[in-house]
Amino acid sequence: MLFFDTVNSHQRSEALKAAIELNLFTAVASTDGTASGIAAECKAAERGVRILCDYLTMIGFLNKEGNRYSLTQDSAAFLDRRSPAYLGSVVDFLLSDYITSGFKSLTEAVRKGGTATSEEGSLEPEHPMWETFARAMAPLMYPVSQMIAQIVDPSADRPLKVLDIASSHGLFGLAFATRNTKAEIYAVDWANVLEVGKENAKKAGVGDRYHAIPGSAFDVDLGSGYDVALVTNFLHHFDQPTIESFMKKIHAALAEGGRAATLEFVPSEDRISPPGVAGFPLIMLAGTPSGDAYTFSEFDRMFKNAGFVKNEIHSLEPAIEQLIVSRK
Amino acid sequence: MLFFDTVNSHQRSEALKAAIELNLFTAVASTDGTASGIAAECKAAERGVRILCDYLTMIGFLNKEGNRYSLTQDSAAFLDRRSPAYLGSVVDFLLSDYITSGFKSLTEAVRKGGTATSEEGSLEPEHPMWETFARAMAPLMYPVSQMIAQIVDPSADRPLKVLDIASSHGLFGLAFATRNTKAEIYAVDWANVLEVGKENAKKAGVGDRYHAIPGSAFDVDLGSGYDVALVTNFLHHFDQPTIESFMKKIHAALAEGGRAATLEFVPSEDRISPPGVAGFPLIMLAGTPSGDAYTFSEFDRMFKNAGFVKNEIHSLEPAIEQLIVSRK
Questions:
Q1: Strands B68-71 and B160-165
Q2: A245: part of which helix (H) or strand (E)?
Q3: Which residues lie across from B185 on neighbouring strands?
Q4: Cβ <8 Å between B111 and A45
Q5: Is A318 buried (19+), middle (13-18) or exposed (0-12) by CB count in 10 A?
Q6: Which residue of chain A has the CA closest to B49?
Q7: Were both Cys, which of A190, A235, B167, B255 would link to A126 (CB 3.0–4.6 Å)?
Q8: B287 and A CB contact within 8 Å
Q9: Which residues of B touch A271 (CB under 8 A)?
Q10: Quick check: helix, strand or coil at residue A300?
Q11: Residue B62 and residue B39: Cα distance in Å, rounded?
């Protein structure tokens, strides 16, 4: 019955988190797959491992044959720590206290119409949550960042001045810098978060073309003459008037003919599909004063009011977010 | 993708809990179904209500047509507070801190092989959790209690001495007392919990045939000569040796030809189905030192070791628990 399944569904999150924290998926693949073998590898109790593995089998993350567990194809690709596509680190952010504390006070957030955790929630200056985000979410964002650079700068052979708003791990800007040796990246984020982006820029060998602009994107001098402004996973934290006025600032920072590239969760006009996307506003309600997800027609209107002449939406499948390219 | 759906599935529990706490389902049915109408009724912000209602629509608890929400058939039956089948109160237990705190330390519980909340978890004497359970879970247990009385005492016309172990809300014993005017109920539970059962016995008009035995079922004198011993939602808190020795005590308390009626989550022999039942051991791992769910072959062996000669299992559909009737 949907009701009980839903009431108990927090257990699924906790079970998956425990398995990732214990490195259980890696242990399933690297041992004989019995509860005792896995338990020895994870330094956990056999009884605990047996119960957790049965649960993970039930919810689709493991197979069970007799008393041996094995990884499903997806678990092998994304949850075995030895896989290059390992995504387990995202629970460090998505199931961090930063996120779950907002949901603990969700009833109050509905009453209030915004986060009940504090006045500004996750939007407080230099909130440590964004350092966690930058480290945990990078693996998930890598393929998306490559797709965006390919769409926005397909030839990758001309000088390109790129503004990267809320640059976080830096991957969105770095995707341009690594493909195009003439691209210069100007990354805006809190000072503590920029350190993560700088590390990644150095690792990618483009540290000399990576320039940090520390501070609030609303308050700092962004500079001017940009060919591209990346506005990724940022606008959903704000209400429509704030977005409109912020996009005017972006518009002013762009060169003539420059483009803004906005990465967002864009629900269909009915706001109840597709599933992952339509669920996103609840995260904003729980954690921010007035964040939301906006439909394409809402973005189109806000961006036009900010001065952009044309907005085009691009699918980034298999990712559920979409890219809006807006021309000055 | 299953991974992200699972990571985020805690949000489903929290959204449903918030809706129940706000009486939102009742408000959807009793207003014009717009976010503003519902918000006024729930004394909540329209923005909060709109985001929550979209989420609940996405996960199947509401319908949406234009800007109006309405209840699904199941939500109307089980989540509108005016419905006689209202089940919303179960979140007071199933999503109480008692339960969720165990899941917060699930990784440690897997390492340890038992609850990491405290030495005894929910098995501490007079744990307040069981008062909450008694009040919150009664509506869910009412239909099950009626089915059990019908199976065990179909004629309901002969004197019947009934022992009700871990009587909680009292409904299991009371189902016998209200059907059979010659039934006398002896209810065992913590003193604080027995108060709830006594209240319900009075309400049912059978207070004079309802006798309280306060204390631990393991330690108190249970009395003797019982025709029926109800052992409902109790054995899963313990390991197999403890169950076997407890059932010897039950065996001794029964009259010749007496029967034990055990209500339990009984997974199939592979332990990974059916879904709701196979998920139960994780709750025991999170909250108890050594609780679990046992297959019928395990119960059959334990009960035979305790002296019972024959064990029969009965479906209680649509409930997911099953009844094992054991003859002395």
A1: unpaired
A2: helix A240-253
A3: B162, B210
A4: yes
A5: exposed
A6: A110
A7: A190
A8: no
A9: 54
A10: helix
A11: 15
Phi-psi region of A98 (alpha: psi -120 to 50; beta: other; left: phi over 0): alpha
**Phi and psi at residue A310, to the nearest 5°:** -155, 130
Nearest CA in chain B to A8: B13
Q: What is the pTM of this model?
A: 0.94
Whole-angstrom CA distances from B298 to A188, B166, B269, B308 are 62, 22, 9, 14
How far is it, in rounded angstroms, from Cα A65 to Cα A34?
Answer: 10
How far apart (Å, rounded) are the C-alpha atoms in residues B132 and A319? 43
CA distance B83 to chain A (A): 15
Q: What is the pLDDT of residues B156-165, one digit of tens each?
A: 999 999 999 9
In A, which residues are within 8 Å of B117 by CB distance?
none
Contact (Cβ atoms closer than 8 angstroms) between residue A246 and residue A238 = yes
Ordered strands of the B183-189 beta sheet = B210-214, B183-189, B160-165, B226-232, B254-264, B322-327, B310-315
- Are A110 and B1 within 8 A, CB to CB? no
Angstrom distance (rounded) from CA A30 to CA A17:
19
Q: Tens of pLDDT along chain B (328 residues)?
A: 899 999 999 999 999 999 999 999 999 999 999 999 999 999 999 999 999 999 999 999 999 999 999 999 999 999 999 999 999 999 999 999 989 999 999 999 999 999 998 878 778 888 888 999 999 999 999 999 999 999 999 999 999 999 999 999 999 999 999 999 999 999 999 999 999 999 999 999 999 999 999 999 999 999 999 999 999 999 999 999 999 999 999 999 999 999 999 999 999 999 999 988 999 999 999 999 999 999 999 999 999 999 999 999 999 999 999 999 999 9
Question: Would an 8 Å CB–CB cutoff place B16 in contact with chain A?
Answer: yes
CA-to-CA distance for A28 and A49, rounded, in angstroms?
10
User: Which helix (H) or strand (E) element contains residue B227?
Assistant: strand B226-232
Q: B160 - beta bridge partners?
A: B183
Cα separation, B249 vs B243, in Å, equals: 10
CA distance B133 to B297: 29
On chain B, the residues whose CB falls within 8 A of the CB of A71 are none
Whether chain B has a CB inside 8 Å of the CB on A61: the answer is yes
- Alpha helices, DSSP H only, in A153-236? 171-179, 191-203
How many C-beta atoms lie closer than 10 Å to residue B30's C-beta? 15
Secondary structure (3-state) at A127: coil
Considering only the beta carbons, identify the residue of B42, B74, B109 that sits closest to A3: B74
Report ipTM (2 d.p.).
0.94
CA distance A98 to A287: 8
**CA distances, A171 to each of A140, A206, A229, B163 (Å):** 10, 12, 14, 66
Say if B99 is an interface residue toward chain A (CB within 8 Å).
Answer: no
The residue length of chain B stands at 328
Rounding to the nearest 10 degrees, give the CA dihedral for residues B304, B308, B309, B313: -80
CA distance B290 to B299: 16
Angle, CA B150 vertex, CA B145 and CA B156 arms, to 5°: 115
Cα(B137)–Cα(B134) distance, integer angstroms: 6
